[in-house]
Amino acid sequence: MMLSILDIIVLLLIGLAVVGFIAASAMFLIWWERKVSAHIQSRLGPMRVGWHGVLQSIADAVKLLLKENIIPAGADKLVWWLAPFFAVVPSVMVFVAIPFGKNLIVKDLNVGILYIMAVSSVCVLGIFMAGWGSNNKYSLLGGMRSAAQIISYELPLILSMIIVAMHAGSLSMQKIVAAQSGYWYILHPTMTLAFVVYMIAATAEVNRVPFDIPEAESELVAGFHTEYSGMKFAMFFVGEYTNVFLISAIATTLFLGGWHGPILPPALWFLIKTYGIVTVLMWVRWTFPRVRVDQLMGFAWKVLTPVSFLNLAVTGWLLLK
Amino acid sequence: MRPDEISGIIRTKFPQVTEEAGTNHLIAAKESLLEVAQYLRNPPLALDNLHCITAIDRKEKMELVYTLYSIVERHGVTLKVCLTPQDLNVASLAALWKSANWLEREVYDLFGITFSGHPDLRRILNPYDWKGYPLRKDYSDPQLIAKPRL
Amino acid sequence: MDTQQTKDIYTEEFLMNMGPQHPSTHGVLSLELKLDGEFIRECTPHIGYLHRSMEKIAENRTYTQFIPFTDRLDYVASMNNNLAYVMAVEKLLNLELPERAKYIRIIVAELNRVASHLVAVGTFAQDLGAFATPLFYCFREREKIIDIFDQICGNRLTYNYIRIGGVQFDLPAGVDEKVKEFVKYMRPKVDDYDRLLTYNTIFLARSKDIGVLPREMAINYSVTGPSLRGSGVKWDLRKDEPYLAYDKFEFDVPVGENGDAWDRYKVRVEEMRQSLRIVEQAINTLPEGDPTVRVGRVIKPPPSEVYCRTENPRGELGFYVVSDGSVYPYRLKIRSPSFSNLAVVPELVKGLKVADIVCVLGSFDIVLGEIDR
To answer: What pLDDT band is residue A255 in, cutting at 50, 70 and 90?
Structure first.
């Protein structure tokens, strides 16, 4: 089917809107994280640039743009240069299937969940390429750990999402939200368990504490992004916050009723719920220590995966009754 | 046990060990050091902790000082060995007390006393290719600071 | 590098340097690690990056002029270093101290012990990944102690307060209220740390049964301080060979059971509580009088030798002072606790993973200033 000029322009505008939202959201999230962490640690956080430091992210972005671009000696140039793209672009692509409001979705794919899972799995390639291409033993360790971690936690993640799809009878994101117009899915017992499993697995997928081993700062200096400076580092950073927003958005859609809510406009409800989960994730980050690699893997394979399979079986049996 | 009791027991067993004038420090000959140390480690004295090894450069001789104490029996003793400047070599106690490993390396680094039988005798505080032994009294470094005014 | 072939898989050990600059090595310490994947096959520490030849300098400074140097040994617990050195010189001179001096010395030494353990606890939690939150809480408490010290002697980190014959100045007015207030404020905070960290599942999983130091090995390697007490040996110089006026105060000596990293951490948290007890008793029964005894400007001890050791927050700090009758010491040997404690770490980390070496190193709480002197 040939696209007319108008269609192309509309698509470009929508793309720009999505990318603009991501940029703004990442900047907001960076500021929000610094404020939340500061208040948990009984200090104030950024206070000078703008009202209570709101414009701090812009100042940081300008600083990162002006930094020198250092390529480590002996680095595998193409792999090293491509790694940030592989880390960020898949996250941006997933935004196509997120329902922000009643009709605010770029494209309501009828294989929404499958698309999300498939595309977001490409992120691990970015981390691994960064680890390998840097010609640095710390980065290599970080990259290898990350690959092991993300692959292990994919399984519980997918299984929890499948449980939701089974209840809703569809893989499309808008249909899942529509199916929660009566009550939120989290209130259902098997779904509460699925929600818990999802949150744990998702935290591991995006390398947040307590699972931030790939960038375990106290052991590996900075893990896989040790050798990146300037805008490339900013891309990893923005990618991380975009991922955090993404998993919260998916959790909101699948378990917390999406954009349903009284009085306020649906898009606002969606944002409130998403940022609520993001804040909880940040709270967890600044409270707990980090798990060790073998404990992490043991937990994924020996606890989360069997629990998810059991949950799946129980859900299936309940639905068939 | 009190220090003079310990000193008495050791001197009865090893007649060539003498006591330093005015204190209860024992002075052993360097040939019998390993034997005396082994005896000190076993019960009844049970000196299971070698706390500190240091050396004092007395110009005409070099004194090695070992500070031992016992956590079980709650007593301690100080053992000295005198070495002549021509023969700065003594048996290593690293097999009996593991703490001697690093302490002897430090004495080697700063004074140049070699310990035969030490598993890994290299410098520890100075760089590995440093020349000279800094804490000897004749160590003349042109950058050595003169004594400040009182 | 060793190579080993298992069936058709070809693996190699690789050498990683946790180099002198690293966020978790508590100073400039270089650890050369031979890794087999995540497992550590061998660990060789390289020290001496902070060697300032203090022992040689001591032979060219008078006894009083050397006191500021002792501050810089274990710069986290300066008062305790001053105390050990000054006690050694006072033994040489056979000096009898007034009671008030002893009590003041005990108060500042124990407050410094609390401050030092706060640093140890905070950095240990940070090394395990509880990024920055426990550290900020511990340093918030430490600020209060440092404020008190600032009021007493004018310095925040290197105090130079305990002098031969007593202390530098008497306690200024208002300090005893501040100390009493601080003790009241600090007690619930120590319970806070227990609630936040000590029984947290992840914290336990990271530190329990890691770096187990058996009792016999600890004694043989001459490990001292909380690291020794974590292995079950009830040895504390303040109780077993009391100095100053410690025999007048009531306090317990916490002891661990297994000798793993968690036990050493727990001993430190408990010791903070006991130190607060001692400070409270001392400040309530502070005797009146002059806290210093005149020793004259020129200190010339008779020719003799003495070895004096005290219980530092990290272990037993010992000074072996040899005097030959002149104003300069003939030989001054500093026996530092972290030096002997570090010697045992390479033995303990064999077979552990990279993440654990940071945990073990943090649990021994070393300070490079006193290792390298």
So the answer is: confident
- Of B142 and A51, which is predicted with more confidence? A51
With beta carbons under 8 A apart, name residues in chain A contacting C126.
Answer: 218
Q: Least CA distance to C319: which residue of chain B?
A: B52
pLDDT of residue C4: 47
What integer pLDDT is reported at residue A276 of this predicted model? 92
For the cut 70, the answer to whether the pLDDT of residue B147 exceeds it is no
C-beta of residue A244 within 8 angstroms of C-beta of residue A278: yes
| Exposure letters C11-41 (e unless 16+ CB within 10 A, then b) | eebeebebebebbbbbbbbbbebbbeebebe
Nearest to B48 among C220, C322, C340 (CB): C220
Where exactly are the structural domains of chain C? 54-336
> Which A residues 122-161 touch C at CB under 8 Å?
137-138, 141
Which residue of C139, C262, C354 is the best one to mutate when testing the A interface, meaning the one whose CB has the most A CBs within 10 A?
Answer: C354
Considering only residues A95 and B145, tell me which one the structure prediction assigns the higher pLDDT. Answer: A95
Q: Which residue has the higher pLDDT, A292 or A193?
A: A193
Lowest mean pLDDT among A122-126, A211-215, B16-20: A211-215
- Block means of pLDDT (10 residues each) for chain C, 373 residues, are 51 75 76 82 88 88 90 89 92 88 92 92 84 86 92 89 88 89 91 85 86 89 90 88 87 89 91 92 88 85 89 91 89 91 89 84 88 87
Please state, in angstroms and rounded to a whole number, the distance separating the CA atoms of residues C114 and C108. 10
Residue A57 pLDDT > 90: no
Over pLDDT 70: what percentage of chain A? 95
**Whether C234 contacts chain B with CB within 8 A:** no
Contacts of C127 in chain A (CB under 8 A): 218
How far C200 CA sits from the closest chain B CA (Å)? 34
Superfamily of chain region B3-87: NADH:ubiquinone oxidoreductase Nqo5 subunit (3.30.460.80)
Minimum CA–CA partner of C241 in chain B? B74
Please tell me which of the candidates C23, C38, C202 has its beta carbon nearest to residue A218: C23
Contact list in C for residue B146 (CB cut-off 8 A) is 60
Who's near A112: CB < 8 A, 6+ residues apart? A97, A171, A172, A173, A174, A176
Confidence of residue A60 (pLDDT cuts 50, 70, 90): confident
CATH class given for the domain over C54-336: mainly alpha
Chains A and C touch (3+ CB pairs under 8 A): yes
CB contact under 8 A, A286 and C133: yes
